[in-house]
Amino acid sequence: xxxxxxxxxxxxxxxxxxxxxxxxxxxxxxxxxxxxxxxxxxxxxxxxxxxxxxxxxxxxxxxxxxxxxxxxxxxxxxxxxxxxxxxxxxxxxxxxxxxxxxxxxxxxxxxxxxxxxxxxxxxxxxxxxxxxxxxxxxxxxxxxxxxxxxxxxxxxxxxxxxxxxxxxxxxxxxxxxxxxxxxxxxxxxxxxxxxxxxxxxxxxxxxxxxxxxxxxxxxxxxxxxxxxxxxxxxxxxxxxxxxxxxxxxxxxxxxxxxxxxxxxxxxxxxxxxxxxxxxxxxxxxxxxxxxxxxxxxxxxxxxxxxxxxxxxxxxxxxxxxxxxxxxxxxxxxxxxxxxxxxxxxxxxxxxxx
Length: 353
Ligand code: ADP
Ligand code: MG
Prior knowledge:
This protein is of the alpha+beta class.
């Protein structure tokens, strides 16, 4: 694929993992990593990494990714997978309004993977660590009977007064989302369709240019590292925050449930990229349904007090999409036709597989 060219690197030789042994392998994969964070006292190489000099509260988050469940190597190149595995974890740190500093990466691999395949995976991990300025400080390596399993732990920090939980939203607060929604899900739909076309006719050269943004959002998602910084500069402390991994609808429900409030979300305020709108038309999908239920956008969703509206209203990264209500008013979508429809975790018109 000519998209995401930065991540492309096809290595043709095939070295069996058993040729290096476990220690040789770990060394080979991790020797290029340099620590940059002042709080990393000691990284890879001993029984445990050592962190020090931390003045703030620590944030720790883990994700486990399993081949065939969370990713399909049929259209996810290993370098992209490595990049994404890091990014989705960092997103959870940013969703606490913190800064990510370190990661650990643990992998289980079957012998169907070659050294070159793992080099690709670690090239993606390395690129993400560089882009987001985090140190790889350890992990574990073991074998699996089938497939690949990756577990990433991210460590971050935030000033005590800045840490933002899911449970702080108040009635009357504004609901704000960063970026735009639905593109990552549509990118997956495009890739799945191309995979099927390719299976039927391997000579078909797909023109994916008009879906470039969607595919990039699926294969190379970015986490909103900029937002905790931006909020600090704007002088805004969100009352609650979550990252959008499962779809807008389910994340709003999480905030409402934990904060014990209701919400009115306005359909016409949901930010959509033009490629999302045109591809929804082509695939005969409802763009609101996609934004509500699509998932994997890794944007941040948060609430702010109404008096903070002047501080955020002109910012191109931030869209006010609704407001929080009393709990007994429920969680609703206000449609373009001004109808009120209760939101469910699947959105309001569940996606059918
Ligand atoms: P132990 O036997 O104590 O678990 P290992 O030999 O597994 O130690 O690991 C040696 C060093 O390499 C440790 O610092 C560990 O954190 C690091 N490490 C092991 N596997 C990985 C990996 N997949 N990615 C990054 N670091 C790793
Ligand atoms: Mg180990």
